[in-house]
């Protein structure tokens, strides 16, 4: 918590890339500033060996969290909002293990419906929002979406922990009631 709280404060102050026009450099710079999972150079140099090892282990999870969990404390970024329109619904279905389920016989999996929903959401975000101005509905929507995606992450991680513990029980031939 301490490492990430400082990261959020830094992102508000220093890593805001003000994108005024849709240029490749501006959009990629904004995406890089918003999604980068590592600390600033000065912050890295102030860390001890233990903190550096924790940050190094957390690079991939931190990137995935930033990619899939909308965070209302971060400044408005239209490229991030558009990217999260695609990552959040598909990842939510993946977490609850329903991505390949077909709702009707001979219909495509739910992943295709999630992509269609993502396309609709991204069109709405594209049309109704400005590149350089935060919409007034941004904070409430990202709060709800962030809460929902956090629950999805908790469910995914806890399911994997239960699966690993069950596997350890099977391999060691210990009754599952003990675990």
Set down the secondary structure blueprint:
Elements: H1 2-13, H2 24-35, H3 41-46, H4 49-57, H5 59-68, H6 78-95, H7 110-128, H8 138-171
Explain what you see.
By secondary structure, the chain is an all-alpha fold. The protein has 2 domains: 1-36; 69-178, no CATH class. The protein is 67% helix and 0% strand. It contains 8 helices and no strands. Helix 6 (78-95) packs antiparallel against helix 7 and helix 6 runs parallel beside helix 8. The protein starts with a helix and ends in an 8-residue tail after the last helix. The mean pLDDT is 86.
Distance from N terminus to C terminus (CA atoms, Å) equals 29 Å
Beta-strand content:
under 5%
| Poorly predicted runs | none
Give the H and E element order. HHHHHHHH
The geometry reads as: flat
> Main sheet?
none
Average predicted confidence as pLDDT: 86
Number of discrete helical segments: 8
The whole-angstrom Rg is: 20 Å
What's the total number of strands?
A: 0
Specify the oligomeric state.
single chain
Q: What helical percentage do the residues reach?
A: 55-70%
How many domains? The number is 2
Descriptive keywords:
67% helix; 2 domains; Ncx-6; mainly alpha; calcium:sodium antiporter activity; transmembrane helix; single chain; 8 helices; CaCA_antiporter; 179 residues; transmembrane
Short description, anyone?
The protein is an all-alpha fold. Helices cover 67% and strands 0% of the residues.
